[in-house]
């Protein structure tokens, strides 16, 4: 039986090494009282918990991460990877418990609709060294239907550099045209004075 365990652990470690590394995804994390909210990008649960602990000044050992909407504890990597990007999380310290938001209305009352559509924009960076980040546009209709689109501006720095290089080339070209034109004007004025 011991041999089977070692073989399965070898297969697992080989499988993990062969899979490509996952891309960082954006998440929002708040404190238990929902007063502090911050955005993070992480590739794994451990990565997110480390960033959250550093940002909120909490020791990683006393940290619990739950889904903000329903209080589901996020304690496995598989469950974390199954959650969509921009999932709102709540960080709990040791001894704290999840509480529902005060904005949650009882089920027997229909919520008042504040409008037809709501549009929100979220800016985030996949890498701290990125020139421009990414933009998530989220539209909610009648507080029921949601549509979101993620725009990754990863080539914006290259585009801006190309634009500046073409502007510099055009400025040099305009300078050469002005220089040549002024030379011809000076010659023409010199010829006019010598002929009179």
TrEMBL record:
Matches recorded under InterPro entries: CIDE-N_dom
Domain CIDE-N: residue ranges: 23-100
Asked if the keyword Lipoprotein belongs to this entry, the reply reads no
Per the record, the domain of life is Eukaryota
Swiss-Prot/TrEMBL keywords: Apoptosis
Q: Coiled-coil region(s) at which residues?
A: none
- Keyword Zinc-finger found: no
Q: How is this protein named in the record?
A: Cell death activator CIDE-A
The record lists the organism as Labeo rohita
């Amino acid at each position: 039986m011991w041999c089977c365990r070692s073989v399965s652990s070898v297969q697992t470690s080989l499988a993990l090494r062969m899979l490509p590394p996952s891309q960082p995804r954006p998440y929002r994390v708040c404190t238990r009282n929902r007063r502090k909210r911050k955005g993070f990008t992480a590739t794994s649960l451990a990565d997110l918990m480390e960033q959250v602990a550093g940002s909120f000044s909490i020791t990683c050992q006393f940290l619990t991460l739950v889904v903000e909407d329903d209080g589901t504890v996020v304690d496995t990597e598989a469950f974390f990877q199954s959650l969509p990007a921009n999932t709102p999380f709540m960080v709990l310290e040791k001894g704290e418990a999840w509480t529902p938001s005060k904005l949650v209305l009882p089920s027997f009352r229909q919520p008042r609709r504040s409008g037809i559509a709501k549009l929100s924009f979220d800016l985030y960076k996949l890498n701290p060294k990125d020139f421009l980040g990414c933009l998530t546009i989220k539209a909610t209709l009648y507080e029921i239907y949601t549509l979101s689109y993620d725009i990754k501006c990863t080539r914006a720095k290259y585009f801006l550099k190309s634009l500046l290089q073409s502007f510099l080339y055009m400025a040099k070209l305009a300078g050469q045209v002005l220089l040549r034109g002024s030379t011809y004007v000076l010659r023409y004025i010199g010829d006019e004075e010598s002929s009179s």
